[in-house]
Amino acid sequence: MIKRLPILDCLRGLAALLVVLHHYLTFNGQAVFNLVPRLLWNILSFLNELNNEAVLFFFVLSGFCIALATKGHLIKSKNETNLFLYKRFKRILPVYLLALLFSLIVGWTMSKLTLPEYAWSNLIGNLLFLQTSTGATDFWFSPYGSNGPLWSLAYEMFFYLVFPLYSYLLLKKKYLYAQNYQLILLFSVSLTCIALNKFFIYIPYFAFLSYFVIWIAGFLVACHFLNETKNDKLFIALFLCGLLSLIFHELIISDALLEVIKGLWIASFFYIVIRFEKIWRPSVHRIFIWLTNVFSYVGHGSYALYALHYPLLMLMNHFKIALSVQLFILMISIILCPMIEQRLQHLQLTFLNRNYLFWYSNTHSSKS
């Protein structure tokens, strides 16, 4: 079994903190601008602009972690599919349901339950993981209670559901095993989905599918990590093409396409960092250890922090809480989130064990 990698928790923590910083400045940007020195504001502004990249990195990291969980293997049977989905639901649902409940409580506290974002239909759409970042169209769903970060969890769930189908396709079409073919095929699918959404009719499932190539890129990076293999030509080519696209981004007419390119560039950069770890790690050993110790703890609660911080910021902004107090409350929440995740996992295991014992006793009593 693959041990938990501290560096992944460290990166999760960093990405989650970037998202929290972005939303903190969304609510308090002008006030912070008036209080801090210009140099510090420039640094905060730079970090603030990395919000989208942080979410794209979460997608890469998600695919990477799934490969670790499956030991780099595709899903080959119905039993493996059931086990895979069971584990994914067990991981994502407790915190997600807590986030929906917290959003509801915050909306009730602010007397905003009459708004469309709190409608029962929108709640059902979120329970089915059908929300997009802005709702996209009148017939679709937005993040419940305006809890913006929840949009990416719909994408995550879509990736989990598509992966068994993708595994089946690769097992049927052996020539697609080559990573080059996989990424070319999926990037072509992304282009098609983006074009259909942009020039014809917007279908949210196409938006979900267009990002799947980013998730798979993370999966493939982990396969090299696990098997100690390499594909330098592919990932360096992705890195260079992505870099050129980012430099000349004004030539790319679709924001969605630019996001996909960014995601692949992040995946390629992640591959290069892991591939040449033996070269760079000794020279930054002390910094590496310090960062790991500082941010790994945050990473253990990064999912809860990501899903819960936005309603908390909404509530504090509604009651006009002072900036210093907001920072203090956010620090407390950062400390508590790993405990929340651990407690939810413990309650879930207890619930599952009790149900298993109940089923086992009933089954054997009926036989006797």
Describe the protein in words.
The structure is a single chain. The chain has one domain. It has helices at 6-35, 38-48, 51-69, 78-109, 120-127, 150-172, 179-199, 204-210, 212-227, 232-247, 255-275, 277-280, 285-300, 302-318, 323-367. The longest helix is centred in the last third of the chain and has 45 residues, at 323-367. The chain is an all-alpha fold and 368 residues long. The protein has 15 helices and no strands. Helices cover 78% and strands 0% of the residues.
Please write the string of helix (H) and strand (E) elements: HHHHHHHHHHHHHHH
In helices, the fraction of residues equals: over 70%
- Give the biggest sheet: none
Q: What's the average pLDDT?
A: 86
Structural class: mainly alpha
Work out the helix count: 15
> First CA to last CA: what distance?
38 Å
The fraction of residues assigned to DSSP E strands is under 5%
What is the gyration radius calculated from CA atoms?
22 Å
Task: Give the uncertain stretches in residue-range form.
Answer: none
Overall number of domains: 1
Count of strand segments: 0
| Overall 3D shape | globular
Q: Concise description?
A:
The protein is mainly α and 368 residues long. 78% of the residues lie in helices and 0% in strands. The protein has helices at 6-35, 38-48, 51-69, 78-109, 120-127, 150-172, 179-199, 204-210, 212-227, 232-247, 255-275, 277-280, 285-300, 302-318, 323-367.
